[in-house]
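To fix ideas, we now present one chain and its tokenised fold:
***
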Amino acid sequence: MKPKRSNKNVKERNFRKMMSSNTLAKLGGIGAISLLLLGSFAFAQNSTSTNPAPLSASCSGSVNVNMVTWNAAASGGVLPHAFLWSGDASGTSSTVVFTYNTTGTKQAAVRVNDSATSTVNASCSATITTLPAATTTPPVGPRPLVKERKLEINPAGRFLGRGMIVQSVASTSFTAKVFGIVWTIDTSGLPELVFREGRELDRFDINQIQVGDEVSVQGAVDENISLVVRAHVVRNFSIARERPRIRVEIKIKDEDKDEKDRGKLRVEIKGKGLREEEAQNIRDQIKKILEQISDLQGKIRIRTR
């Protein structure tokens, strides 16, 4: 019995027969060259496709502090290649990145498949020697409320707001937010002012209210102006007792030491518990008053001459 010829041997024998001198002679010069090139290309393609290079793979790990970049490389076989990581890494890409919370040697393995049936495995390792310095991040967000937020308005217009946060402060009013709504609290009627410990002032002082304070307000809704409350009682839960009261002493003196300064006025401001911006505001107001007084003095001098 004759041995069976392989498919490769049959193709090579047919190619040689096609390339025989008799065949080329019959085609003539140009046809012979064309057939020769076509046959050579087909033979080369056939040889390559039936004999791909063996599939091979490798991997490595690159360390950056506690982060490892795992890389896999594959060659040979029938494209495309497929990757599957295991061990201290996972994923299906040729490159995967992982962050570890412990030091030591990390082991990873990758399995590579080609589009045919070939499978190869590769393993690699990376050593982490240090971890990033621990950082403590303070909690972000509003401070906890003393009183649970509450907003009540009865049919008669009576207002009760709790857990309100002060947004701005003016001379006879302040604004406060609760449930996302900003209310203007009118204090021109001098409401009662109570602190967290229950202590009460004998007279309302707007300086006891500052931006960021938690307050509760009892009063009546203004029927004519939207989101305005006429306050009857204001309670500040952000301070246990009253803040230091502002005491301002203003002295206006006549600068009459010599003829040149005669008629000029000098202002001295001494304050206890007075913020710098408040003191500057007082200075500006007094400056305007002194300018008006100076103008009046000038007019008086002109008339008396």
